[in-house]
Fold:
Amino acid sequence: MKKVFLFGLLATLTLLPVFGCGKSYKNGEVYVYNWGEYIDPDVLEMFEKDTQIKVIYDEYETNEMMYPKVEAGAVVYDVVCPSDYMIKKMIDNDMLAELNWDNIPNAENIGAQYFETSKEFDPENKYSVPYCWGTVGILYNETMVDEPITKWAQLWDPKYKNQILMQNSVRDAFMVALKLNGYSMNTTNNDELQIAKQSLLDQKPLVQAYVVDQVRDKMIGNEAAIGVIYSGEAIYTQRENENLVYVIPEEGTNVWIDSWVIPKNAKNKENAEIFINYMCKPEIALKNFDFITYSTPNDAARELIEDEDIRNSEIAFPDLTKYNNLETYKYLGEDGDELYNSLWKEVKSE
Amino acid sequence: MKNKFVKWLSLPYAVWSIAFIIIPLLMVFYFGFTDKTGKPTLANIMSISLPVHFKSLLIALLLSLISTIICLLLSYPLAMILSSMNKDNNKLMILIFVLPMWMNFLLRTLAWQTLLENEGVINTILRSLHLPALKIINTPYAIVFGMIYNFLPFMVLPIYNVLCKIDKNLLNAARDLGANEVQTFFKVTLPLSVPGIISGITMVFVPALTTFVISDLLGGSKILLIGNVIEQEFTLNSNWNLGSGLSIVLMLFIVISMIITAVFDKDGEGSAL
Structure:
């Protein structure tokens, strides 16, 4: 029903003609919907020049913000870059198109183990090409804490009142609380979730703010002592502020993969595949890695990294076998999503 | 003939309001009164009675009420000063006052975030002067502050408008008849400026009640206002039905405040912004 109404609205909007301006591109266009600051802007320009395909590029802040937009189809995107559990949700809801691997030969540069991990959400490797991966951990400022931070439990230490930044997204916030209590972060057990909710409520007076992308700037600016952050941000923040340390907490955490997918309703599927293929080129993947500092699954690109410290960095390329209790988010189903959302709302409104 | 021509001129506005006001409003009502499968239901509306939603509505009402009162207390004297100044001077004053409104609302609020932060501009200055730091970021105080800062001009301008229109002869007559300054103010100026006050109150109260940006940026997402709940239902939980239902409840409060305006401001004097 949503679609019928949107169509009515869109019909009035399409009265406004679309004028192309400036350069013309021979090979049409591709609509890309990606995370904020998740690509080197130069790469987009190079892509346009090399392939003569115009890129229309939009950004989102969380998976949950991306999903309704793609679902509603107000703008039809050709390439999207969701995370693992969201890809599963999109597959389950029949929103993704199968990839034609013949058009993406560069995918062979991606390490086999990442396709193996991808099977958790894309069982037959039919829909997704890994783009970035990493962990969620704690970033802390050495000069502002009394002892090294090694576990989630320290985020409940009253002496860090108003020094803690939590993630303002349902799954990440609950992941921390569930791991703290020794549960799986994919649980839909109501009792376990109630305990996790209580933990988050207990923690709330200590939290300075719930933020998403701002963790980075606030940590660099010495605004807080401890923050929950994605590993990819860690290298960047350390470049800007040498007192910052990133750790994977003892209780375990989330290992995630963001992958390129093509929505079923994409209008430029072939261009989308050309785009994905281009992103898998080693030198392009390297350029993106240098810019966004999120771990690349592109083994060929990793070989090209000149700085040995970074190539063997424990933050960018941790040896996952060393850690216990690492998990990947799973899609919880509609009921599970609703349960998490309503509990999170209770935490936030308290 | 002339009349007909004028009617045609209003066509673009009619198209605009149908496309961007009437149709979206109808959609909000449609979603608000149906569930995910499209069946009619009142559950979305009734969910305002859930503690989570009700509490966020109460906090929103409280914070917007406080900021409206403070805005009024700050604006009235200012508007009086502006209206008593000579024409050339007050034009400059008003320009200075309106100038920040030319900047984007979001940017102004973000700027306040960097100003108010613990390691922000204001605190750095305070610390270098050995004064105690200001700790209001991520608290309800910062939200109220943001509301007052952003919506103050909407209170000043309507009051100023009404005060300017008061016939000076009325004031002189009051003084001639023996009223002192205080009596003149309460018996003449204040009653005559009620339309401006009322429209100022609506113009501050309504956006303050519905805001979600200010509470997000200055409140550190720790305080959930009803606006935040609605925003999250749309953007995060993809539950358009619940979001629409709560919007309808919120609209009720807005309609009430508009009715109050209409009663007090029959001639539409104060709304001439």
